[in-house]
Write the structure tokens for this entry.
Amino acid sequence: MTSLTEIHPALLWETPALRTRAEHLDRAGDHLWRVVDARGRIRGHLRVIADPLGIRYRAERLHLASGSFRLIGEFWDADDAVAALRN
């Protein structure tokens, strides 16, 4: 079975384009970006994952006490994932 990374190798490495200017993305890992608002505050993280049906975007927040990420939601659209981190 062919993985999505083999079909679209550059797709997972590019920074997702956001339609809104309220936040921007700073790379934090291979498939991970920090979501930063206009004031420079980190709202959370956006992780790109491969799904058999296409690219999915996970909105996550770092839980400092445990050192792990907490899933906020998983979306088909990067803007929807970023919007979930605004609240």
